[in-house]
Specification:
single chain; 204 residues; alpha/beta; Rossmann fold; five-stranded parallel beta sheet; four-stranded mixed beta sheet; 8 helices; 47% helix; binds adenosine-5'-triphosphate; binds ligand LQESDW3C; Guanylate_kin-like_dom; cytoplasm; Guanylate kinase
């Protein structure tokens, strides 16, 4: 039997909340969520691998992708460009697999406009002071960039009500379980088995 089209999940949240950490954990587990690897013009951080964490690219190539409509969404964030290659997403959904995007809020709003059936999840830290501790503790950005990211974080948090779900990242394992539970619940909703059971009852 032909598989239904996969579901598209969008995970956003302020810089430093733990999106990457959660996605790393989920990618190591057996789930039906395929991770869409973004393109970015940002320089790789120590330990980041091209084609695993991001497709690192030059600005010219990124512009070309925009002009050729090869990005599902894109945004400029603190001086760098980030975008979702469209081909991987559509091919994977067409095969019947689910896709998860880990993107910031401007990009999520573009997806909401162009693909409203996507499921939007906003990841929240337990507090703003904990958010600061996490982004400072990561030690990957200088102070001015951290402050810039934290001021954008406040604006992003104000957009939380546009999302279908708000998930707290208090503990990594718990946040992963919540996201996986959302995926299961959304499949139950999409599959709506009432019709199948109605037919079974009528046949008895
Ligand atoms: N539940 C948690 N408890 C404590 N620390 C956490 C938790 N989740 C993530 N962290 C830590 O917070 C820091 C930021 O996490 P991470 O890089 O995953 O955030 P992010 O949301 O992907 O950030 P960005 O959007 O800037 O890429 C990391 O040092 C990570 O180890
Ligand atoms: N709109 C998009 N945002 C993206 C994409 N890939 C990642 N991101 C988000 O950018 C910020 C900064 O990321 P960082 O790796 O430099 O810390 C963060 O919120 C990411 O989620 C994308 O394809 N489109």
């Amino acid at each position: 039997m032909k598989k239904d089209r996969g579901l598209l999940f969008v995970l956003s949240g302020p810089s430093g909340v733990g999106k990457g950490t959660i996605m790393k954990e989920i990618r190591q587990q057996e789930t039906n969520l395929k991770y869409s690897i973004s393109m970015t013009t940002r320089q790789p951080r120590e330990g980041e691998i091209d084609g695993v964490h991001y497709h690192f690219t030059e600005k010219e190539k990124f512009q070309e992708m925009i002009e050729n409509n090869k990005l599902l969404e894109w945004a400029e964030f603190v001086g760098n460009y980030y975008g979702t290659p469209i081909d991987y997403v559509t091919e994977t959904l067409d095969k019947g697999d689910d896709v998860i995007l880990e993107i910031e809020v401007q990009g999520a709003l573009q997806v909401k406009k162009n693909y409203p059936e996507a499921i939007f999840i906003f990841l929240m830290p337990p507090s703003l002071s904990e958010l600061r501790n996490r982004i400072v503790g990561r030690g990957t950005e200088p102070e001015d960039i951290i402050n810039n990211r934290l001021s954008i974080a406040r604006e992003e948090i104000e957009m939380m009500s546009l999302y279908d779900y708000v998930v707290e990242n208090d503990k990594v394992e718990l946040a992963c379980e919540r996201i996986k539970a959302i995926s299961i619940a959304e499949h139950c909703r999409r599959d709506r088995l009432e019709d199948k059971y109605k037919q079974l009852l009528e046949a008895e």
